[in-house]
Structure prediction request, 171 residues.
Amino acid sequence: MPTSTVLPHLERLDAALGRLRRLWDCPELRRRFRERVGRPVEPAMIRTLRVIEHAQDHEPGVGDVATALAVDASTASRLVDAAVAAGYVSRQTSPRDRRRSVLRLTADGAALLAEATTVRTALLAELIAGWPPEDVAMLAALLERLAGTVPSLPAVPPASVARAGVMEPRS
Prediction:
């Protein structure tokens, strides 16, 4: 349990993260983004493309998208299907395992991701205009640190499952 000196800061952090969770879904930011990119693009599409780009060193698949975006496999599959249908991603058979599909950004997908990243960076710059550079650097470092702890959370069964006496099998 957090100490009484940390608890108020954790409550503030929780509230701020709640407000930021949907930052790119804010109507005004979406409008500005759409204007600058010149076409309607869902934030989920950009997140999907970013995952695939960052995972290029190890044959990314739908499972990598699901894990990175913290969504179930069916949601990741729909996101990938939409990216393929839009021409931003291609599916190729893995040379190591012919049962697997490997995802690759197409030239259009790489161009959209680069453009979206540039536009989002510019929008962030507008949001933090006037901040001292050291504050921006500190915020980035602390958010990266926080984000880096999420994958290390141990898997715990939901409370309802634990109360019912149903536990995950041990490996």
In short: Residues 37 and 116 are 7 Å apart (CA to CA). The chain has a mean pLDDT of 88. The beta strands are 89-93, 101-105.
